[in-house]
Structures are given as C-alpha cells and as structure tokens.
Amino acid sequence: MIRLLLDTDTPQRALTPAWAAAYIHMRIAAYGTDKPFATVYTDGDACLSILDGNGVMAGDTLRNTAEWAAFLGGLSDLKTLLAPEGLLGGMSPMPQWERTPLPVMQYGGASVPSADDAILLDSPRALYPLLSAVFGAAVPPFDSFYVDTAYRLRHGMCHIAAIKGEDALLSAAMTVAESTDAAVIGAVATLPSHRRKGYAAQCLRTLLHTLRAEHPARTIYILPENTSLQRYYAANSFFVADAALYYQKKGN
Fold it and tell me: What pLDDT, on a 0 to 100 scale, did the predictor assign at position 9?
C-alpha cells in the first residue's frame, strides 16, 4: 500500500540508485515531509518525493505496478517525474505524460584542482537571468527557484560555480541534488555569445573539486538531455552508469 511518509518514519530499505536517492534525502533533510509543497510517499520499498509539483522516485522495485500507475495518474498537482528506468520501465504507458529517456552519467576521473576563473556563489540571484537566457520557459518562476536554491545554499545542500563577466554571469554549473554519498550536477549554462571558451568546463572543474573536497567518496552524476551533451561530458571523464526516464505532463 502506498502511504504518506511521516517525519517519524524512514524508508524500510536503503534507497537506490544513489543519484535518485540523493534528491529524496536532500529534500527530506531540507523540508521534512509535512509541508504542503513537499511530500513523500512510499510503498515500503520505492519512494516518491514531490516538491512544488516536481517528482523524483527512487527504489529497485515497485510492490504493485498497477497501484503506482493509478496513484501517479491521480496526482493532479504532479507536473514532472524523474525516475530510474528500471523502476518505471515496465509500467503501462500513461497517455497524459510525455516520456523522455535520459542517460545517467557518472564522473570517473581523478580529483581535479579548482579552476582559477570560476568562483562559488553564495546567492542564486545572479544565476537566474543566465538560466532564463539559456533555458527559457523551462526555468521555474523566480520566486520558487530563489527560495529553494537560496535555502539549500545556506544549509550546504547546493553549490554553484560560475564565471563572472562585467555585468552578468557568463557561465555556471550547480548541483540539483546532494547527499553525503552522491551529488547530481545540473543547470550547466553558458551565454551563447560566450560559448566555446572553456567556461563550462571551468565551472565543472570547480564544482567537482568542491564536492570531492567535502566528501572524497561522494559519487557525482549528471543527466545530459541529448547525445551532443553526452559526448561533451564523456570528454570530461563522465561515463554512462544508469538510465532514467523523465516524464512531463502534457500541457505543462
């Protein structure tokens, strides 16, 4: 039976894979499970975390696939869902969702020094215009983005590496999920007029250095959206370690 996870509860089994578990552990650590905008559900094995309508699932198996399909279909406020392919790959298609497969790439390189020109930001305010310029409507509204990212920055659950120009950020990379065991890098962005200058690679280097300096055994992941990005990260010592499915409700 799928139930709401309460603050006093913990998942009955350790959540896997590590990249998906990092989202859920981070969200629980940041917001608990009793907030209207942050809820967690479990069947005792798999977990679903929903934050502002964006869901992430972790686990090796679903106890009842039909129950989860009906449950997910009935969540009217759920806009997106990210999950390991092996967890939801066998689920019957949900007609109201668009499904995109994503490779999960893991950093396999050695420890790297921080880049000289990249700095760590202590506020996400300057990051938002850069992300909006690069990703457009895919970026959340400013208020929800700022509140969540600033809160996680203050509590050590997010890191942002950036290259500054005279008036704005030129390039940046950040973590979208962190735990002591794993971190997921996302929102790697460079202004079109400043690409092919190595700025993104410098931001990645500084982020990788910082994440490993804090927790040397931490595994670091990234989920590129297309084959061009996959080739880019492969050239920067990432390799395909897993597969994910990204669902987006039609009309969102």
Answer: 60
Q: State the Cα–Cα distance between residues 179 and 16, nearest whole angstrom.
A: 13
What is the distance between the alpha carbons of residues 144 and 150, in angstroms, rounded to a whole number? 10
Grouped pLDDT means (10 residues each) for the chain, 252 residues: 77 81 93 88 92 94 90 90 89 78 95 90 96 93 94 95 96 96 96 95 96 95 95 96 92 65
- The pLDDT value recorded for residue 8 is 55
Whole-number pLDDT of residue 228: 94
Q: What's residue 161's pLDDT?
A: 98
CA 249 vs CA 37, 82, 85, 94, 178: distances in Å: 18, 12, 17, 10, 26
Distances (CA, A) of 215 to 7, 144, 210: 26, 29, 9
* The predicted structure's pLDDT at residue 108: 96
Q: Where are the beta strands (DSSP E) in 132-204?
A: 160-164, 169-178, 182-190
Count CA within 13 A, CB hemisphere, residue 82: 22
Return d(Cα 51, Cα 24) in angstroms, integer: 10
The phi, psi pair for 173, rounded to 5°, reads -145, 145
Half-sphere exposure of residue 120: CA atoms within 13 angstroms, side-chain side = 15
Three-state DSSP class for 75?
Answer: coil
Q: Are 11 and 5 in contact (CB under 8 A)?
A: yes
Where does residue 165 rank: exposed (0-12), middle (13-18), buried (19+ CB within 10 A)? Answer: middle
